[in-house]
Amino acid sequence: MKLVVATNNPHKVKEIAAILRGQNYEILSLKDFSNAPVVAEDGDTFEENAAKKATTIARYTRLLTLADDSGLEVDALNGEPGVKSARFAGENATDEDRNRKLLNLLKDVPETKRSARFKCAMALSNPQGDTDVVLGVCEGIIAFEPKGDTGFGYDPIFIVPRYRKTFAELGPAIKNRISHRAIALQKIKKLLQY
Amino acid sequence: MKLVVATNNPHKVKEIAAILRGQNYEILSLKDFSNAPVVAEDGDTFEENAAKKATTIARYTRLLTLADDSGLEVDALNGEPGVKSARFAGENATDEDRNRKLLNLLKDVPETKRSARFKCAMALSNPQGDTDVVLGVCEGIIAFEPKGDTGFGYDPIFIVPRYRKTFAELGPAIKNRISHRAIALQKIKKLLQY
């Protein structure tokens, strides 16, 4: 069965395909639908953005569609960057720019107050617009400097306390088991039975 | 563990408690929180209304909360009554008033065009506002006259094709296995593992 992953981000397609391997889905992405509508991620929550993307793309492709919206909530910044995680340092900034900005904002914040969490909302929509939305959460601590070279986004500055390592140090095998996206996708896997 | 079912409708609490029996939850309802905020069900979709109710009540009660929003979509009425199912014949109307109004609107519609579906969105929120939303759908046909005396709402005029009987004729044992609410709740049961 075909399943459209509503993203252009090849990192996300790869992570999702890895976790759904063995589920017998032919995974497509927005790259396979060059004229697909662009969905503005202007909701107040990850769940809202994911649902909007999934329903829009499912209606357009007439196929079962999975969309995600994810980001980092830092307690010392009152939950920022949150739904603005991708645009935190402006539209054309790089992962490095965003990590540098975040570390800079937290430079005087001690370790005990650097708690944060990655959240990933995933929405599954059919062409009729019926939608399930689930949330995966992974708790952590913001590092004082970037470490590790796997993953993407905020991975080099997000420490998982249980391992005392950043996502970027842990590598894909462990990350794909414990991450916010992994947890959300495990929930989606359960729902795909229905 | 305590689980608040965010409804005042005793029929819904009973159905939900029956399906979650054996899951070791102490089920509370809004009757146990007499000052809980009233949440306006003014969203465009069942999912939106369920999520809004669950997050509001979870924050208020500081407990894991399950909320549902459900209704009937009739194809010959372009999906109406939909999210307005409970108010379809005005605020103070009875189930009988709503069923009579619906049958009247469909009085010249032949059986082949009386397709409809019950939908139930269920949202599960924790006190931090993290929310999963799932949808259960049950396809059917609108009857020409009410039949059966179990259940509530539109049950007497909703025929399940596989049984050739209305929900109100089928009774709770079968309804709690195949209904929109049962399907949504089975999904929720899976998500409660996380």
Write a short abstract of this structure.
Two copies of one chain form a homodimer. Chain A is built from five helices and seven strands, in the order βαβαβαββββαα.
Features of this protein?
194 residues; alpha/beta; 7 strands; seven-stranded mixed beta sheet; homodimer; 32% helix; Maf protein; 5 helices
CATH-assigned fold name of chain A: Maf protein
Into how many domains do the coordinates of chain A divide?
1
What's the total helix number of chain A?
A: 5
**How widely separated are the two ends of chain A?**
14 Å
CATH architecture of chain A: Alpha-Beta Complex
Spell the H/E element sequence of chain A: EHEHEHEEEEHH
Oligomer: homodimer
Strand arrangement, major sheet of chain A? 2-1-3-4-5-6-7
Global outline of chain A: globular
Structural class of chain A: alpha/beta
Mean of pLDDT of chain A: 93
Descriptive overview:
The structure is a homodimer of 194-residue chains. With 194 residues, chain A is α/β, with parallel strands linked by helices. The first copy, chain A, has one domain (2-192): Maf protein (Alpha-Beta Complex). In chain A, 32% of the residues lie in helices and 24% in strands. The first copy, chain A, contains five helices and seven strands. Chain A has helices at residues 10-20, 46-61, 95-105, 167-178, 180-191; strands spanning 2-5, 26-29, 65-74, 115-125, 131-142, 158-160, 165-166. The first copy, chain A, has a seven-stranded mixed sheet. In chain A, strand 1, helix 1 and strand 2 (26-29) form a beta-alpha-beta unit. The longest helix of chain A is centred in the N-terminal third of the chain and has 16 residues, at 46-61. The radius of gyration of chain A is 17 Å and the shape is globular. The mean pLDDT of chain A is 93. Chain A binds chain B through residues 45, 47, 51, 119, 130-135, 137, 183, 186-187, 190-191, 193-194, and chain B through 45, 47, 51, 119, 130-135, 137, 183, 186-187, 190-191, 193-194.
